[in-house]
Amino acid sequence: MSPAHRYTPVAIVLHWLLALAIVGAFGVGVYMSDLPFSLTRLKLYNWHKWAGVTILALSALRLLWRLSHRPPADLPMPAWQARVAHAVHVLLYIAFFAVPLTGWAMSSAKGFPIVWFGVLPLPDFVPKDHDLGELLERVHAALAWGLAALVLAHVAAALKHQFVDRDGLLARMSLRRS
């Protein structure tokens, strides 16, 4: 595939780093939520928070890159598919920010500060408020599951393009140059 039809190397790296971080943070989040109180649970909560802040930072970089660099031209597809793809991408970007921001707000409301990688203390996002913390916990979980559904839809569409349409869509975001 010619360079004009591929995403830039920076866009590709940001895409895959964000994908790995989201899948990892989601998996840790689901696993840790049912653990009994222990040092392991506390450690996993910290890792989950660190991943969330990292996802937020990567999302900001990715959005800035996307706004300043045009993506390759769309592949030929029916108009309805292009509209759905665009809508899913917009919702993904919204979720990239909404999920970690609600997690940060929840942590602040519950009185648990975030110290990124144990080094950089982040300011409280909202004042300490038990009821708000409980509400934000439910919102954060719902948004995380929504993000998971969007990721699955995105992956399913990419696989459909690769194996049903055979239009070379995956090569546009491949780490290997083809």
From TrEMBL:
Keywords linked to the UniProt accession: Cell membrane, Electron transport, Heme, Iron, Membrane, Metal-binding, Transmembrane, Transmembrane helix, Transport
Compartments it resides in: Cell membrane
Regions annotated as coiled coil: none
UniProt KW Heme keyword: yes
Domain named Cytochrome b561 bacterial/Ni-hydrogenase: residues: 6-173
Main location class: membrane
Cofactor: heme b
Entry's transmembrane regions: 12-32, 47-65, 86-106, 139-159
Topological category with respect to the lipid bilayer: Multi-pass membrane protein
Annotated InterPro entries: Cyt_b561_bac/Ni-Hgenase, Cytochrome_b561_oxidase, Di-haem_cyt_TM
PANTHER family: CYTOCHROME B561, CYTOCHROME B561 HOMOLOG 2
Family: Belongs to the cytochrome b561 family.
Protein name per its UniProtKB record: Cytochrome b
Species the sequence originates in: Pelomonas cellulosilytica
